[in-house]
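Hi team,

As requested, here is the filled-out complex form for the adenosine-5'-triphosphate run. I kept the field names the same as last time so the parser does not choke. Let me know if anything looks off before we queue the next batch.

— J.
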Amino acid sequence: MIALDIENVTKSFGGVRALTGVTLSLNEGERLVLLGPNGAGKTTLFHSISGNILASSGRISLFGDDITQLPPDARARLGLARTFQITNLFAQLTVLENILLAVCGAQKLTFKFVRPLDRYDDIQKRARALLEEWNLVDAADRLVRNLSYGEQRQVEVVMALSGEPRILLLDEPTAGLSPAETLRVMEMVRKLPRDMTIVMIEHDMDVAFEIADRIAVMHQGRVIAEGDEAAIRGNQQVSDIYLGVE
Ligand SMILES: Nc1ncnc2c1ncn2[C@@H]1O[C@H](COP(=O)(O)OP(=O)(O)OP(=O)(O)O)[C@@H](O)[C@H]1O
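And here is what came back:
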């Protein structure tokens, strides 16, 4: 089944053309990595898929439903979750509290703020199960602002997983991380269920080639190459604009 179908998508910001005729399609369970230099349009494409911005033209469908004009929450209900390039956590709350809020959001619960969160048994159970599954139990009571940047990225991924998404968009999950932290985040990505469709923006070629079933390279708002590691490494245009000519 086709999980995500992007057809001829264009996005302009005033006079700036950020995306031009982008066409990409992913089967369910496929892992696609988006590569490309700064300003290539990767984040704009992510925003267009998640609904944070609307495409100027073209069509995007998710598991067969046309989502081109839908707001982000409607896309989330169809099984889409994402992380952001800039960490998007509640720094003054603990890891557990952040996860609890994500689980509440995923279950569309309207909880009363006057009722302590620890009274919501199901949510507590789900949040603690997530912490256990992703080896974050020891960090449960730490304030997010006191975590390392790498740990924060891990918490973000777990929050995105709280609604059991069918498709997950990861916006540069390893950006700014140390080599050891990068390995931990990559380990998480590798552990994700194999039937979960993943689209990931990544700058590190080694990480990209290790995770991806397929790679798409963007440049100046267009997809200029698509294929497996050999196809991308052997592509002259990619070498010229992105890898540097040897
Ligand atoms: N809100 C905006 N308003 C105007 N121009 C924008 C806006 N968002 C992005 N752009 C422009 O669109 C183009 C693509 O930007 P985008 O952030 O999608 O690239 P990117 O590949 O994600 O780059 P990076 O790797 O640096 O994050 C750039 O020229 C950028 O300046």
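Two things worth flagging: The mean pLDDT is 89. The longest strand covers residues 2-13.

Thanks,
J.
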